[in-house]
UniProtKB/TrEMBL annotation:
The keyword 4Fe-4S does not apply. The lineage of its organism: Eukaryota, Metazoa, Ecdysozoa, Arthropoda, Hexapoda. This is Gustatory receptor. Pfam families: 7tm_7. Keywords: Cell membrane, Membrane, Transmembrane, Transmembrane helix. It is found in: Cell membrane. GO terms for cellular component: plasma membrane. One of its GO terms (biological process) is sensory perception of taste.
Length: 285
């Protein structure tokens, strides 16, 4: 039997190794981002996601600030158009006589005040987004680091439910706002463009709320995941049952790395202390 030596190509092996290393579940390839990417694009269009990935880390993006700048200009223009529209309608109703016209004239100042308040809210949220970009990226990277750490401990997170919830929320939100738009066009005899412009600041405010609620939800998911790991690794009541134990030190390091790097606020400190006490009580030495 004759043995033949196979040529060993260092370059080919190096390329294959790099390809395997490149497919890390981080950055845009992370399960969390892959499950919510449709919502990320929607929120970015409305100017509330000026971030991008660089070397698998989320960082503030100056390029995506163009969406925020366009949103500011668009909301300001819409406020100006709505104000002119109400002023013109008021003049027309003042010329005409009638009880209904008088009621409409009285309601207009309240409507204008509501529009101004909503405009102020969405502008405040945009400015807050711009000034808290680094804080947001630290929080996201802390969540990503936690997912990577628990994955290396053989406790990977599954984001199937998150993906389903993200798609359902995106579809339901689009459907609801479409129905509201059509209803407004039919009730007030408005054009599609004017009605959409009037609604745009309200939609922008809802996008900011979705972003905040989503991050709070992701944090809650990871606390729940950590709690499941703790319960699974509690000492077995029966000597026959064998369970693997995650040490107290490992648990403290994992959750500390999640919170200390991402949450520097008072809420983060309280959560860190609470979690530290839970780990001390639940994890064995």
């Amino acid at each position: 039997m004759e043995f033949r030596t196979r040529p060993f190509d260092v370059k080919t092996v190096f390329v294959k190794t790099n390809r395997k290393r490149a497919k890390k579940p981080r950055g845009s390839n992370s399960p969390l981002y892959a499950s919510i990417w449709p919502m990320v694009y929607v929120v970015r269009v409305f100017g509330f996601a000026p971030y991008e990935f660089s070397h698998d880390r989320l960082v503030p993006s100056n390029g995506y600030l163009i969406f925020s700048a366009v949103a500011v200009a668009l909301y300001s223009y819409i406020l100006y158009v709505v104000f002119l529209r109400f002023t013109g309608v008021k003049r027309e109703l003042t010329v005409l006589s009638g009880t209904e016209n008088a009621k409409l004239i009285k309601m207009m100042p309240e409507t204008i005040v509501q529009v101004i308040i909503n405009y102020s809210v969405v502008m405040y949220e945009l400015v807050l987004t711009l000034f808290t970009r680094r804080n947001f990226t630290r929080i996201w990277n802390a969540l990503q680091d936690y997912d990577e750490d628990v994955r290396q401990l053989d406790y990977p997170r599954k984001e199937t439910r998150t993906a389903i919830a993200a798609w359902i929320l995106t579809i339901v939100t689009a459907t609801v706002w479409t129905i509201v738009n059509r209803s407004g066009m039919y009730a007030f005899l408005e054009t599609w463009s004017y009605n959409i412009g009037y609604m745009l600041s309200y939609i922008g405010t809802s996008m900011a709320v979705y972003k905040f609620v989503g991050m709070a939800y992701f944090l809650g998911q990871r606390f729940h995941h950590l709690n499941k790991i703790a319960i699974k690794n509690l000492p077995s009541p029966s000597p026959r049952e064998k369970t693997t134990h995650v040490s107290r030190k490992v648990g403290i390091i994992e959750i500390s790395s999640l919170l200390v790097r991402g949450f520097r606020s008072a809420l983060g400190i309280v959560a860190l202390l609470t979690t530290y006490l839970v780990i001390l009580l639940q994890f064995p030495d």
